[in-house]
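Schema walkthrough. Field components (list of strings):
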Amino acid sequence: MTSRVRKPSAAIAQDVPQIQPAPGGQRREYWIQAETVKWQITPLRKDEWHNHPLSSRNTYTAYIYRHMTPGFAAPIGQPNIPGPTLYAEVGDVIVAHFRNADTKLRQAVTMHPHGVRYNPEYDGAYMGKYTRAGGFVAPGEEFTYFWECIPGAVGAWPYHDHGPNHTLNTSRGLFGAIVVSERGAKVPDVSYTLMLHQLTPPITGLNRAFQCINGRAFAGNTPTLKAKVGQDVALHVFGMDSNFHDFHMHGHRWRDTGGAPTDTTTVGPSETMTARFTEDNPGRWLYHCHVFSHQDEGMTGWYDVEA
Amino acid sequence: MTSRVRKPSAAIAQDVPQIQPAPGGQRREYWIQAETVKWQITPLRKDEWHNHPLSSRNTYTAYIYRHMTPGFAAPIGQPNIPGPTLYAEVGDVIVAHFRNADTKLRQAVTMHPHGVRYNPEYDGAYMGKYTRAGGFVAPGEEFTYFWECIPGAVGAWPYHDHGPNHTLNTSRGLFGAIVVSERGAKVPDVSYTLMLHQLTPPITGLNRAFQCINGRAFAGNTPTLKAKVGQDVALHVFGMDSNFHDFHMHGHRWRDTGGAPTDTTTVGPSETMTARFTEDNPGRWLYHCHVFSHQDEGMTGWYDVEA
Amino acid sequence: MTSRVRKPSAAIAQDVPQIQPAPGGQRREYWIQAETVKWQITPLRKDEWHNHPLSSRNTYTAYIYRHMTPGFAAPIGQPNIPGPTLYAEVGDVIVAHFRNADTKLRQAVTMHPHGVRYNPEYDGAYMGKYTRAGGFVAPGEEFTYFWECIPGAVGAWPYHDHGPNHTLNTSRGLFGAIVVSERGAKVPDVSYTLMLHQLTPPITGLNRAFQCINGRAFAGNTPTLKAKVGQDVALHVFGMDSNFHDFHMHGHRWRDTGGAPTDTTTVGPSETMTARFTEDNPGRWLYHCHVFSHQDEGMTGWYDVEA
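Field assembly_structure (string):
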């Protein structure tokens, strides 16, 4: 199956290096395939915040990263937006075996990671005649990316399509998260990745826009986060469209990178912020983008804290 | 008087806890009522910066937080946008006695604070069937909020309506500021709160949009800030609409939360930044949002520094 | 030649002070004139990233800051967007001799600097009847600005027009950069200033909008950055329009002002961010604004790193 854009000759699979972990580091191996699925934006057909019914017309053809067992043998869990979160520590190499399993849309796609280090072959970026091996994975093709978790890569980062039509295909749902920790760092008790992005009529074929979190819109449909008092909580929040968002959580606060307390943090496109706090406030809380017009179009959710 | 949205049964006043200050802390008591007033956006009918006349059609029905004497006995000062700034130190509890005194708009409204800690009852957020006591204050009703100034709450924060139509009513003017300091911290010699927000035709019924600071547009109408050389100045700047703004002051600079010098700082919706500096530059200065299209619609003002 | 706006009487050249450098500091003298030039936005007529042809209709009348030899005797180099970068160290005074050499547009223009300290006369801001000497430089006139590089001015800052029509004339191209370093600080081996701004049909008379870097749009037309492995690289990135942008560089990362690793940083209008890193990753890389809709309109470029 060919894609709508011709494969640049420079992108034809060359010998590409196998990157090894740093001493003491690990290979973190993932099998991920791009596929299209029917995706419901508001499966509840209700906005629980305002207790309003929502239209039953809420399904579109999403293009997603699907988490697979080794060798792409079988899917792990249900299709999801975002794709699997790739966890690693400093010194590790993330080995992302990628397969473009969709043949209907005729799109060459890729995985382009933020934050981690990589050779040009593993950039996952279409670049016209300068495209390298991993920058054009045509329908039916596979490619393996090697991403190095150097010390400067600590943090939460997005990965997303960067093929020849990456604005289109990232908007359709081709994105996920990478979380790199210091070696041996304490793992938070509770960790969530929240991707903020819009789904517009040209993408969905629906008659309205949605401001989404993880492919879903309006509280009850978006992730209902859960934690218990005393737990160490990490919320990784990503901008995944052309908008600027700002994430607000009721009843809680965290520190910005300069150490100042905040409860509302701006994230631009493909920027990340992590809210890390020890849970101390039981109850049901709203979280939402504080851009009022985005809240009103669905960028809201629940956070339930058990005493 | 009933509101246009029905009161959720969970919001009917339960027994709610009286929160006490931490040892050595104080109760900071405020009486605040929501009311509608006729508000002039450009009382001078002139843009002093460009020396242009402005239309006399500049009045709209604002919905504001009015500062009252104890027991809501009488107003303190003139109606204002923003509402009163609530000052406290770490260890204090802000006790906000709130009354919804408007009966014409038929809106249930609230006070939702940022930054401070609060029990779910004092979140001031409408949440459909999950709404708690303080999340729906119908016309004519009262509610008392208790907000705890924990150590992580140091900073400047907005409060605003978070009732069932909070986008609408916050846009009409229902917002104010909270400033929490370390206990015993030096109070700045000069302190201003500047709320950046737009007033659009659907809100005002006027035939043009205004980019406002504290409900006013264009230099001469917006606050003319004043200070003297040698004074310790704090400017608390808040985003209070769906836009991203960035605040610029001529002839001055401050430090971002990471310690880097800046003279232009982005604030997203309900984000805050504080410019703190020792005044050293006498003269008349412009301050403005550096989004050019916002300056052009009025988000500008004067700062007069005496030698 | 008079300008379209009348010169405020307060702006008529008074005796203005000559500002001296701090002990041990220098006068950094620049001669700069505002002039109009025919400017090609996409001189290659090609988008090298996507290997697409671009329309030959890509020229507009830019209003630019031209770098001149002493006494405005002759231009230095070709006309450029942005204007010359003004370099200085703490303790220095930048002496900017400015001449408004355009007589066709009938615009009074100025140089307004960010970051540095200046007396009101050297603010370069039109302020209606409060305008000072340097705030209105009519066609054919000259003015000399003195800008003090105090310790708090370390960083990269824009300068731009702030005359009576500064939104218009800044949009036409009247902007440049100031870089202030600690005294005796190591100079980066490679340093670039990248100004992110849009050129719209009302400014250009063309039939489409461009999202530009330094007056150019689409990779191959925008600056192709160059460095070698081991070099100390500084990229100074500026927002120069009414949009918020976020700058992403493939294959690299830097620290935000709080010390957190990032590879995508938001810049608001007239905000700056500096990405500083030791080059360690040879190859051809994309850099771009990560607002997808800005990438698609040209805010992209190449970075070539030699091994």
